[in-house]
Amino acid sequence: MTFPTRRLAAMAIAFAALGAAGSAPAQDYPARPVRIIVPQPPGGGFDSVARQLADKLGPLLGQTVVVENRPGAGTLVGTEAAAKAPADGYTLLLGALSNIALNPGLYARLPYDPLRDFAPVGLAVSYSYTLVARRDLPQATLRELVEFARANPEKVTYASGGNGSGQHIAAAVMGHMAGVKLTHVPYKGAQAAYQDLLAGRVDLFFDITPTARGQVDGGTVRALAVSSRGRQAVHPAVPSVTETGVAALDMESWFGLFAPAATPAPVLARLRADLARVLAMPDVVERFQKGGGTVMKLSPPETEALVRREVERWTRVIREAGIKGD
User: Fold this and answer.
1) Which residues neighbour 31 within 8 Å (Cβ) at sequence distance 6 or greater?
2) Mean pLDDT in the chain?
3) pTM for this entry
4) What is the pLDDT of residue 265?
């Protein structure tokens, strides 16, 4: 064997050894519990989706899947923690429209890059927002309310679960598109917002549809519109904002799992395959649909393209509307 031949053979053996070493963790994955970081407190939309996915993923992976709530600074603390976690498949993020697509437009300095720092495992479900009003609001329709707000700038108030939340963005963008000035009243979570809405101390709340639905069905608030382009099956009599003609709003909050960007391809493939199996389970589909959600069944390239489009679209819209998260 000549020297060049021996050298090539040695290099081939070295690369093979490196490949074997790199694939060994993937072949054994998962060898211990997996955690899903939820960047919001227990009880909200983030938490609910994460726990439903964790319950089903655990048996498929053969390991416990633990939900870890890491709230703080909106969704920044938990999302940053997931971005900086080891890229080994044992730490995942419950990512959503707000912390993946809205935050880049809200914050001048974001401690993570949603496109560079994360690889989508897959999107699971999307929900509309429902604009609800205090029960004794004089205006019966959204169009009437916008006309009143146009004649009375900043007199109409709207609640949110916090500055920079999806609830805040939905109302602020709608107001910007409609050309009216509304007054934002941020709260620490939806529960506090509903307390003042039910008491008549605030006029509106653009809440995620599954949570709003209980209040609407209970008669404690009135539904004026939904944020999606079309109507929602859980609110068949409620028009979309676009349908009312006051603004061309098209906004749905999606939720899914994301992994640190450098996660090994075989581990990512395993997670993607098992998540797809979960989203094909009839009981999972039924549970999400009963809550007003739409199960999302996208391929990895489709998921990556959608996430990129949403980041670019909402960054532009938020900045044009002058909305700040700081």
Assistant:
1) 63
2) 90
3) 0.84
4) 97
